[in-house]
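cron nightly-structures :: item 1 of 1
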Amino acid sequence: MKKIHTSLLAGMLASVFIFIAFGTASAKDEAQVVPDALRGKALSERLCVNCHVISEDIKGTVPEGVPPFKVIANKPGQSAEHIRNILLQPHAPMPNMNLSRLEIFDIIAYLDELRLEGSGPSLLPDKQQKDMLPEIPEPS
């Protein structure tokens, strides 16, 4: 009986160690990942397509009055900060999708690709140095 408890305890401790080690590593590695428009499009097609027109090659119906991604991307004065804030603290009827920092910037990268020439500067913080994601402030 004591041997079973010892084995169980050892297994639990190993699981906790693996969780801590990989959880920390992935959070650290996330800061080194470049925002990716293809991941952003795929994520948008999975999470946003029920309410927004994501791209012209996707057909379907969406609620009236909800702007297509192309309109969001080209809105005068649009910024990554504004999009980030909407995704972090969505408004009704938009659901809270609990996106990671990388997922938010992947969606912003996709929206940046939908911007038309002359609609404003890039939505990405610095296209020359995209190896670091900007910090997102902790919710208050």
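cron nightly-structures :: done
Residues 33 and 86 are 22 Å apart (CA to CA).
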